[in-house]
Amino acid sequence: MLLSSSCAYYNGMYNARQSMRRAEALAQKGLTDSAAVHYARAAEAAEFVLRRHADSPWKSEALLLAGQASAQTGECVTATDRLTTLLAVDSLSLDDRARASLAFAVCNMQSAEYSAAATRLEAVDIALTQADSMDAASAQRRELRNSVRRWRARIALAMNDAALADQLLRDLSERDAPWERAAFAVSQRDWARADALLVARATVGDVHPMLESLLRDASAQRQYSLVSRVADAYVGSQAPRAVRARVQLLAGDAAALAGDSATARTHYARVLTRALADSVTVRDASARLIQMAVMRADSIPTLRALLDTAPVEARGSAVFDRIEAASVLFFSLYDADDPSGAAWYLAGEVARDSLSSPRLALSVWRELETRWPDAPLTPRALYAAHMMAPDSADAMKERLLARYSASSMASLLRGEGVGESADQRAADALLDSRWRLAVRGLEEALRLRRSISRTDTSRAPSNREFR
Question: Is 246 helix (H, G, I), strand (E, B) or coil?
Answer without folding.
Answer: helix
